[in-house]
Amino acid sequence: MKILDGKLLAKSLNDELSKKILSYNNEYGRKPHLLVILVGDNPASQVYVKNKEKKAAEVGIKSTIIRLSKDVSENNLLKVIDEANANISVDSILVQLPLPNHINSNKVIDRISIEKDVDGFNSKNIGLLALGRPKVIPCTPLGCYKMLESILDLEGKKVIILGRSNIVGKPLSFLLTNKNATVTLAHSKSKNLKDLCLSSDIIIAAIGKPNFVKKEWVKENAVIIDVGINVIEDKNGLRKIVGDVDYEDVIKKVSFISPVPGGVGPMTIHCLLSNTFLLTKN
Ligand code: NDP
């Protein structure tokens, strides 16, 4: 069994990226510029945004955070996006999700120009990915793909993705299909999940259920990518983060597994940075 170390892979990819950004900066006299819009004071979102800001600075990307009150009207948020779309000093725009309930997230995401949509969640970007003509690929799916690509050839591999959300499972199913894998996209209404998993070479779990996948579900030498982030209390009442796969249970059976934390998370951030640079060059 080998650990698919997302932290290490992200570090090496970030090192490569920062060299490219440095030479871009030398040539054009400017840094790529990521604009993050944060609405409200959700503590998890604050932590994510801070982390993105820090990682961006490490590779030479300038980031600006616009903080808006949780009561901001949808119209005012859309105006901020319009201004950022029109601002030529901004290369990429990210609206941190989730948004407060009174705001229509789909409308907001679709307002971001596809030339600046760094998360790739805009319906045009998702549509282009589904058609096999991607421009910007959502960061978590792209991170999962880069991890897989670092260890195997996806062509003809049977992959099951657990979870069909618009930000992880669905775009990932398009991406891996484009890369010639045979993909099953499963969800809470799927039947015989265990059998579907047992017949798969690769299991990607993105459902948000702690330790859901057990060794009885996993075929010998399977590869596992664990996207889940779940906070649980251990036997001693201490909070810890675990994935959707029971790591200790499956570990002897698999050929590769990505840990949580230190797997998909750092790769997602790497892809945010590489997408920013891609949009900057475009
Ligand atoms: P969502 O809650 O949006 O979607 C969950 C998906 O899982 C749904 O499609 C749901 O099915 C499916 N599901 C739920 N329960 C089951 C079940 N028992 N069997 C099969 N399918 C099930 O989650 P996200 O996609 O946003 O996130 C998933 C996990 O990944 C979370 O833990 C999240 O924190 C983590 N995450 C990690 C990231 C990272 O960078 N590492 C980035 C993004 C997310 P249905 O559609 O039928 O309801």
Topology, please?
Blueprint lengths: L1 E2 L2 H23 L4 E7 L3 H17 L2 E7 L5 H13 L5 E4 L9 H7 L11 H8 L8 H11 L8 E5 L6 H10 L3 E5 L6 H6 L3 E4 L17 E4 L3 E4 L5 E4 L4 H4 L5 E2 L6 H18 L1
Parallel strand pairs: 1-11, 2-3, 2-4, 5-6, 5-7, 7-8, 8-11
Antiparallel strand pairs: 9-10
Helix pairs in contact: 1-10, 2-10, 6-7, 6-10
The structure holds NADPH dihydro-nicotinamide-adenine-dinucleotide phosphate.
Walkthrough of the structure:
- By secondary structure, the protein is an alpha/beta fold.
- It folds into two domains: 83 residues, Leucine Dehydrogenase, chain A, domain 1 (Rossmann fold, 3-Layer(aba) Sandwich), CATH 3.40.50; 126 residues, Rossmann fold (3-Layer(aba) Sandwich), CATH 3.40.50.
- Helix content is 41%, strand content 17%.
- A six-stranded parallel sheet has the order 1-11-8-7-5-6. It has a three-stranded parallel sheet with strand order 3-2-4, sandwiched between helices. It has a two-stranded antiparallel sheet with strand order 9-10.
- Helix 7 links the parallel strand 5 and strand 6.
- Helix 1 runs parallel beside helix 10 and helix 6 crosses helix 7.
- The protein is globular.
